[in-house]
Amino acid sequence: MRILFDTNVILDALLTRAPHHLPAVALMDIVARKELDALLSATSITTIYYLAEKAVGASTARQRVSDLLSIFDIAPVTARVLADALALRFKDYEDAVLHEAARHAAATAIVTRNPKDFAAAKLTFYQPAELLRILHATS
Are 3 and 97 in contact (CB under 8 A)? Predict the structure, then answer.
């Protein structure tokens, strides 16, 4: 299973955003142990850094982004990804870009806590707690 993580799931873990942080942290631990093939969109990295810097300062934001880069693969955001995202019927272009970055990087699913944002998705999507249940059931 190759899964792209939505930006909000990573921010939940890094910024300890209650009540969502526990499943997000548990999933990131699974990724860090290399028990899940996981991706982040290239655009997510810049958003995560920007928001983390505001919340915890530049030094900590740099360390957290460095940690993410060491455990996640990165789904490129190319001109093709951006064009294909425009053709989708998503309400939010950013979500369409994440979807297409995932698809072009051969992901099979997206983990997000906002499934309504991916209602038009061609890929499967999971909420964090749901993905945790699936992963625990198969281990």
Answer: no
Q: What is the pLDDT of residues 22-45, one digit of tens each?
A: 999 999 999 999 999 999 999 999
Residue 81: both structure tokens together:
């990804």
Dihedral pair phi/psi, residue 67, rounded to 5° = -60, -45
Radius of gyration of the chain (CA): 14
59-115 pLDDT, tens digit per residue, is 999 999 999 999 999 999 999 999 999 999 899 999 999 999 999 999 999 999 988
**What's the CA gap between 109 and 14, in Å, rounded?**
22
Beta strand spans in the chain (E): 2-5, 37-41, 73-75, 109-111, 124-126
Write the Ramachandran bin of 135: left for phi over 0, alpha for psi from -120 to 50, otherwise beta.
Answer: alpha
Question: Within 10 A of 93 (CB to CB), how many other CB atoms are there?
Answer: 12
Q: How far is CA 109 from the centre of its chain?
A: 10
In the chain, what are the domain boundaries? 2-132
Assign a CATH topology to domain 2-132.
Rossmann fold (3.40.50)
